[in-house]
Amino acid sequence: MDVNITKHENVTTVAFVGRLDTPSAQTVTETIAPVMEAADGTVVLDCKDMTYISSSGLRIFLALRKAAAAQGGKVIVKDINNDIRQVFMMTGFLSLFDIQ
């Protein structure tokens, strides 16, 4: 799993590439820690190149959403594929996030 973080004005984009699974979750959590600490703007989770998300990955998304809400920010999940959309639907995450 690769994670690319870019910031432009008040929008931080976190682009995920590959599988967000249990083995990669710890590294991803460490990589996005600065985003969680400064999530007072808009955080876009770009999932265009994400091929899979496990429950560990869902926990990361949820933790980021909570951090943003606590700081007055918001999280947008962008470009999820059909398989990930199914996971979001089954877990109730479709209603928790702004999906674009």
Q: How would you characterize the overall build of this protein?
A:
This protein is an alpha/beta fold and 100 residues long. The protein has one domain (2-99): Transcription Regulator spoIIAA (2-Layer Sandwich), CATH 3.30.750. It has helices at residues 22-37, 55-70, 82-91, 93-96, and strands at 2-8, 11-20, 42-53, 74-78, 98-99. A 5-stranded mixed sheet has the order 1-2-3-4-5. The mean pLDDT is 96.
Give the helices and strands, then pairings.
Elements: E1 2-8, E2 11-20, H1 22-37, E3 42-53, H2 55-70, E4 74-78, H3 82-91, H4 93-96, E5 98-99
Parallel strand pairs: 2-3, 3-4, 4-5
Antiparallel strand pairs: 1-2
Q: Brief description of this entry?
A:
This protein is of the alpha/beta class and 100 residues long. The chain is 46% helix and 36% strand.
CATH fold label:
Transcription Regulator spoIIAA
Taken together, the total number of domains comes to 1
CATH homolog superfamily: STAS domain
Number of strands: 5
Major sheet: size, sense and barrel closure?
Answer: 5 strands, mixed
Mean model confidence by pLDDT: 96
Q: What would CATH call the class?
A: Alpha Beta
Strand order of the largest sheet: 1-2-3-4-5
Tally of alpha and pi helices: 4
Any idea what the radius of gyration is?
12 Å
- Shape from CA axes? globular
Task: Label the structural class.
Answer: alpha/beta
